[in-house]
Amino acid sequence: MIRISRYTMLALAGLFSLYHVFRGVITLGVPDSPWPSIVAMVLYIGATIISLWPTSPVQMPLSLAFFNLAVSITLCLLVTSELDPGADNGYATWHVASIGTLMTITAARRREWTAWAGVGFLTIQSIVWAGIGTAAAIGVTGSVTWVAIAVVIARALARAGRDAEKLVLAERAAAEWQAAQDAHFTERARRLDEASRLAGPTLRRIVLSGGDLTPDERMEARLLEAGLRDEIRGRRLLNLDVRREVLAARRRGTMVSLLDEGTIDDLPQEELDRVLAVVAASVADSTSERLIVRTAPLDSTAAVTLVGLSKPAPGSEDPDDDVDLWREVPRSAAAGSDPGRRSRQGTMEST
């Protein structure tokens, strides 16, 4: 595929525009006075330079479009004011092609109605000035045709650009969907493999025994179920130390809940290891009947919150569980010198 750079196209358009000026220069002797044509040439060159400026956006500013329209109207009036409509003026009617070129540039830069207004004024003024036959002979029809072609091409390119953008968005959405599906499939396969590895032996014992398990085997099955639940709900709250201490706490009779809300996914591995070390130590030291380990909200300075709950002491009039452990593990080591901030409270509503 042949590609033409933007600067090459601008250079070609500039040379084509200057060609019209050259035609006007060599026929300056035809008008009664050359000065109106010279002024028209200066205006035309200025409008062309601004319209073809390399750093300009694709869509022409509305102010520049109106300026080009004003220049086109001025060119018609200045050049024809010194020409004889009944004579063969030759290239002295250079303004017709110049206006067609300037309005074509305007249309290509997505200011269609301004371009149509420019060639429309050119057509009407030329017919009034010299008649329909002369207007066609000096190239008015060609100028209108250029603008029409520019409008069609500009619309086609704009439509192609929109379609390309839609295709890019659709492709991106499809890639994201495929990535999510692949991640879901991989995660599901990993969890199935993990569950099969952990629960396989126990399930085989249950099948072989017909469900008649000893109390110890039933306890191990419950611990296994809780561990599998941790793998699903605990996610990044788990490492080898945390798994070991949680299992030990459950064997002591503590109900442990691990809840990862996804707020520590962006935590650096070094900080995550520090946080999980505190969690493992806290679980090991806990004497609570219930222990809840939950990731803190994103706007919190804490990464993980540990809450220990126990039934109220005998004779207590408060039916709510006692909070005998409250620990917040900061997201970064700089947030506190102590690896975890602990405070004891009297009671907390049972959850």
* Count of the separate structural domains: 2
Oligomeric grouping of the chains: single chain
Query: In one word, what is the shape?
Result: rod-shaped
Helix-residue proportion: 55-70%
Rg calculated over all Cα atoms: 41 Å
Structural class from helices and strands? Answer: alpha+beta
Distance between the termini: 68 Å
Main sheet, how many strands, which sense, barrel? 5 strands, mixed
Q: Which H/E pattern describes the elements?
A: HHHHHHHHHEHEEEE
Count all strands and give the number.
5
- Annotation field: number of helices: 10
Transmembrane segments: 33-53, 60-80, 92-108, 115-132, 138-158
Keywords: Membrane, Transmembrane, Transmembrane helix
Region (Disordered): 309-351
Helices and strands in order:
Blueprint: H1 6-25, H2 35-51, H3 62-80, H4 94-108, H5 112-130, H6 132-137, H7 140-209, H8 215-233, H9 240-251, E1 255-259, H10 269-285, E2 290-295, E3 302-310, E4 322-330, E5 341-342
Parallel strand pairs: 1-2
Antiparallel strand pairs: 2-3, 3-4, 4-5
Notes on the protein architecture:
This protein has 351 residues and is an alpha+beta fold. It folds into two domains: 6-167; 233-342, Heat Shock Protein 90, CATH 3.30.565. It is 61% helix and 9% strand. The chain has helices spanning 6-25, 35-51, 62-80, 94-108, 112-130, 132-137, 140-209, 215-233, 240-251, 269-285, and strands spanning 255-259, 290-295, 302-310, 322-330, 341-342. The chain has a five-stranded mixed sheet, covered by helices on one side. A hairpin with a 6-residue loop joins strand 2 (290-295) and strand 3 (302-310). Helix 1 runs antiparallel to helix 4 and helix 5 runs antiparallel to helix 7 (140-209). It is rod-shaped and about 120 Å long.
